[in-house]
Write a structure and sequence with these properties.
With about 220 residues, the chain is an alpha/beta fold. It is built from eight helices and six strands. The protein has helices at about 10-15, 20-35, 45-50, 85-100, 110-115, 140-150, 160-165, 200-210, and strands at about 35-40, 60, 115-120, 125, 155-160, 180.
Length: about 220
Amino acid sequence: MPLSHTSWAPYIKSKLTANQLSQIAEFIDIQYKQGTVFPPREKIFSALSITTLENTKVVIMGQDPYHEIGQAQGLSFSVPDVVTAPPSLKNILKELATDIGYRQSHDLTSWAKQGVLLLNSVLTVPQGKANAHAGKVWEPLTDAIIETVSSQTKPTVFILWGKYAQSKRKFIDESKHLVLLSAHPSPLSAYRGFFGSHPFSKANIFLEQNHRQKIDWLK
């Protein structure tokens, strides 16, 4: 689904210039013609097509899509169940098991359908070249998305793992939203504060306190 067909389009258009939107469209055309890029083109905006602004209760920020064949779905950290869970996702599910309970599936689409915006800061990546599209065209768009969610009156949980995700913190109004910070779930940093951070139960406690339906993280 193209960006213009998502329910987010009017909000994004109000925050980005026509030139910025044109640059994004041109960047997509060029990159997908030049080589193998993930996620599949039709799934670039999956996070925005599955989770509407109205339904967004939790935002989980990722860095950029997985860069190997069959992994990226357009949802941060999620991969299809037919694909082996990457190390960061394995650690996310390990923390979930300690925090709430065991979840067998590592396809997180069901979270997105419940109102968890699984958003990467950068929405595309060339095969085998992690973060190669950082600093190109995507950051103004994802900044605008975070600002848009923050501007809503409904209390929302922002889960920011690692310094890259935490760079978005400046766009969040913490007087009405909950921001949960910890180390990234990568094996390089998970033992420096990610494990034991209990983000899933903390998110649900906040949602219930603010009369919003909690997330069934095991679904």
